[in-house]
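wait is this the right file?? whatever heres the structure
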């Protein structure tokens, strides 16, 4: 199973990107970042005044209530993207014959708990493998 970038969004600005769009995304472990955000963060990191300003307050401290409310759907979309990525990762592990016991062990849960969380969505009904 190949994990694809199609339909992903930038975990920082919420812009949809990936193949078939004009927005390049890079990243891993579920988080994706577009090249525009990389450029913006690079500019901040290499400008002492901007870096100092960013360190003084968190982004949400500078946002209006309207901006905070408008950002909530982006936060949830990013979280859902990460949950979907975890599902894809488990599917890939199962395709490589990694047992539910091993998946549960690394997640700190029982084999059954791992299976209940992930198998029903992937169609893998093998509770004992």
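ok assuming it is, sequence goes like this
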């Amino acid at each position: 199973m190949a994990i694809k970038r199609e339909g992903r969004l930038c975990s920082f600005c919420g812009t949809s990107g990936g193949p078939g769009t004009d927005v390049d995304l890079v990243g891993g472990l579920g988080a994706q970042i577009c090249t525009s955000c990389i450029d913006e963060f690079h500019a901040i990191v290499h400008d002492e005044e901007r870096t100092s300003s960013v360190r003084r307050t968190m982004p949400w401290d500078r946002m209006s209530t309207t901006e905070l409310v408008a950002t909530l759907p982006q936060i949830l979309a990013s979280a859902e993207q990460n949950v979907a990525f975890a599902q894809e990762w488990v599917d890939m592990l199962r395709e490589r014959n990694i047992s539910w016991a091993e998946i549960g062990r690394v997640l700190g849960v029982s084999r059954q708990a791992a299976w209940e969380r992930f198998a029903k969505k992937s169609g893998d009904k093998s509770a004992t493998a």
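Residues 43 and 54 are 12 Å apart (CA to CA). so i think its the right one actually
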